[in-house]
Q: What sequence folds into this?
């Protein structure tokens, strides 16, 4: 074979390797569709086991659905925590003494009459609750979102002689009384939030359903 023929053959081979013929549009769409479908199926395959592993109550909480709390074993002075919309909600069984203290020395409070919109209308009272003895409140400080500590004791050394029981935020020192009302002169600007809730019975509370009146 002559050198000219060899050169022609090599040129033809290069042209064949880098074809300038446009790809078939139909074939390209088919490939893109196939890849998209495969990706969707893969994502679903990963998601379904995770959803299946969640209990019905966990799925309800994740979706922000109402949650029920049985308070039948909640003794005087005790607190229990339930989760609603990813937030801790405290339920406190207040003593008669602590309810009396809510009426005293309200001048120390920033918003004693709950004028700010931090509660449903049926909780806009001195005890900020449907039933005076049962407080239902979101356990998140209104300063920077820390979770305060429940401090029901009277006049502890670290909180002072004028402490009548309430909630203390260890992050920045904000103080709230046993109705979740914020004290003046602390970083938190607002009272603790009262969520919507209703009583299904004397001992069963549904948090997240805005009815208010006891059953």
A:
């Amino acid at each position: 074979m002559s050198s000219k023929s060899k050169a022609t053959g090599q040129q033809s081979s290069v042209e064949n390797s880098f074809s300038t013929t446009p790809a078939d549009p139909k074939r390209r769409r088919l490939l893109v569709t196939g890849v998209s479908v495969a990706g969707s199926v893969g994502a679903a395959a990963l998601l379904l086991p995770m959803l299946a592993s969640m209990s019905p109550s966990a799925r309800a909480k994740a979706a922000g659905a109402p949650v029920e709390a049985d308070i039948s074993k909640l003794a005087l002075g005790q607190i229990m925590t339930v989760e609603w919309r990813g937030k801790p909600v405290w339920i406190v069984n207040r003593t008669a003494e602590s309810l009396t203290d809510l009426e005293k020395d309200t001048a120390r409070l920033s918003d004693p009459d709950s004028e700010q919109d931090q509660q449903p209308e049926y909780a806009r009272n001195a005890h900020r609750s449907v039933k005076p003895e049962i407080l239902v409140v979101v356990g998140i400080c209104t300063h920077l979102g820390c979770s305060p500590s429940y401090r029901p004791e009277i006049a502890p050394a670290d909180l002072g002689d004028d402490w009548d029981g309430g909630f203390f935020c260890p992050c920045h020192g904000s103080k709230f009384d046993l109705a979740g009302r914020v004290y003046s002169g602390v970083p938190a600007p607002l009272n603790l939030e009262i969520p919507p809730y209703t009583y299904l019975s004397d001992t069963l509370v549904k948090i997240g359903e805005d009815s208010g009146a006891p059953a």
Observations:
- The radius of gyration is 32 Å.
- Residues 3-8, 11-22, 43-48 have pLDDT under 50 and may be disordered.
- The domain at 66-207 is CATH 2.102.10.10 (Rieske Iron-sulfur Protein).
- The chain has four helices and nine strands.
